Amino acid sequence: MPHRSRVTRRLGLKTALAAAVALPVSSTALSRTPAAASDRRDDLEVMSFNLRFASTTEPNSWAVRRPVMRELLRQERLHLIGTQEGLYQQVRDIEADLGPHYDWIGTGRAGGSRDEFMAVFHDTRRLAPVEYDHFWLSDTPDVIGSNTWGGGSIRMVTWVRFRDLRDGEREFYFLNTHLDNASQNARARAASLIAQRIPGLDRSLPLVVTGDFNVAARKNPVHDTMLGAGLVDTWETAAERSKLYATFHGYRPLTPDGDRIDWILTTPGVTTHRASINTFSVNGQFPSDHLPVQASLTLA
To answer: Is pLDDT above 90 for 59?
Structure first.
């Protein structure tokens, strides 16, 4: 069940969080004067980013990639980031690099600090979490670490209900996931489960979904299932778009007009002003083996 008491098991009560083994959450971030955010228009800046798990293997170890990741995230000045694949210490590194006005919510997909996180980072000057929960992409979605569809890895969803402090304290849902890379059956069933869960949220509120879906948009039934759940693809609805590249590059040359396997989806009433695929690198070093995808949104 979602955790509905105000900010219980969220930013404020670390004692309650510590008691919940499944839900390690970052330290409470203290707000500072919003100098960086004050010069921006009121669009909600959202990113979905598969971080590539922290590895010591060269030439793309986390130690090498981290400074590039830090520079990218700081220059984009995002309000909301749905991440995939981050390991616990890697998520903590990103928290430190983003600075004290960001915080995050998440748990390891095997429970506690184990395995990869679907961590959700947010700018505390703009957004306040109201409630959150996790579920696992399996026949037993409330069982931590469950994997029943033959997927190569445990897969899960982290969702948060946010209050937008700048937009009249409007509330909305944010859902972040990473579907299986090995099994189409697992991906298809995961998409169906997410579609079944969406109506259990307050349908009067906007919904934003981020994720690495491991299949190309418009080329797989997973995309159809997500759109059939009442969502739209921000890349398709955006008033303006960047150049299209395949969002997975594997540290090889970028592929123009390639497959988008990382998506930002929303309910239809959300306006997408711009959708982009970010090709940021430093001296040829990319921060991840995926390109982050971004959207500038107005909620409705």
So the answer is: yes
